[in-house]
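Minutes, structural biology subgroup

Action item carried over from last meeting: produce the structure token record for (+)-abscisic acid 8'-hydroxylase (Rhododendron griersonianum). EB confirmed the sequence was re-checked against the source entry. Recorded below for completeness.
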Amino acid sequence: MEFATVFFLIISLILSLRCLLKFLTSSGHRKLPLPPGSMGWPYIGETFQLYSQNPNVFFASKVRKYGSILKTHILGCPCVMISSPEAVKHVLVTRAHLFKPTFPASKERMLGKQAIFFHQGDYHAKLRRMVLRAFMPESIKNIVSDIESIAVGCLESWDGQLVNTFQEMKTYAFNVALLSIWGKDGVLYREELKRCYYILEKGYNSMPINLPGTLFRKSMKARKDLVQILAKILSTRRNMKDNHTDLLGSFMGDKEGLTDEQIVDNVVGVIFAARDTTASVLTWIVKYLAENPSVLQLVTEEQEAIRRGKCGEEKVLTWADTKNMPITLRVIQETLRIASILSFTFREAVEDVKFEGYLIPKGWKVLPLFRNIHHSPDNFPEPDKFDPSRFEVSPKPNTFLPFGNGTHSCPGNELAKLEILVVYGGPTQWNSVWPLRSSPEWFAHQALPQIEDRNPRHRSVMQTAYAIYIIMFQTQ
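Output recorded by EB:
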């Protein structure tokens, strides 16, 4: 009896000490100050400032005034912005379990709740393994010639025409995405898939009002049509006995046990992730090569040397060729740095977090500012200068993050680099004979959907209206 009493008292003491420690720790956290910064207008915060100016200006001015960790309020949410390589690694890698990925609810409905972007833990890890397996060099090296065929087809269709580069690059990236997902099996459905997806994507930033005639309703209907097409492709693939190394083959592996809903949501998610970002990089490369003829000449000479070494059947681009393009690769790297397509990413604190002497309250968003890191003179001298030669030496650790970092970094980065190398590893002469028709100021960082009206006053009104909409509907 005495032993039982002593044992009970010891357990009670341990539990009491744990509760006291937790209380003291929590109280200590709550006494910590919030990071310095400005929260802007009530509820609206500083969203207008973010979306009405060059993001370089907005982020840089904040960091100059408040330092590398600061608070603000954008898109209806209180946020902490971080801009040092060490802090970004802390959030995305070292203590990633304390910061979960977060997206607008409307995005989740459009892409599908089972998509990889919206998950953590075992399910996310399993999906990531499957995507990496399909997009690792050993898998994608066999589709180089197919990607080249897509690139050549696109370039030939532009001959003698005035084209919208970004839109055409989106078509190219879309076709490569389909190829990487299910090889040539989806060729019969390509145009139908494209039609459905293009309607779907228009609803990514629409008001989530499911009424007849609304953009949201049309987009959700297009998604249903897309699901039906994907179901046909899944059915066809199941009737085949061949082994496939593409993404669909990875998703459908017997050992993985994914449901059709999970497969479809992740296929839609991969198309979303693979298209616009890659198309943006391709478009910025056009701009920078046109503005830097000496760099274009170096790229052209490199590609001509590769072509001179081929004859007959060997004229087709190979995986080995793409590994022999150091100058072209550095152009891609410098474009990824200076354009910083992924300006920042969103995380959400899952509990109160003590960080560099400040408190990040549970539920607050945390924004690692990749753009600031890429444009810091401490990391890249003369950061506003387009200079691919800077990548002749590897950047300092955690200073070059075009694909993010940690377990949620882009698993398709090797495919993205490959399709860019292929399109510029072919007839690069088109860059020198196809002059740009847009003046440099029209190459803008598109934080918002593209707005066609070129009247500055009208454009400002539309941007303001759109920012209000984002605050009201996209953060719910």
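Discussion: The radius of gyration is 25 Å.
Next step: EB to file the record with the rest of the batch.
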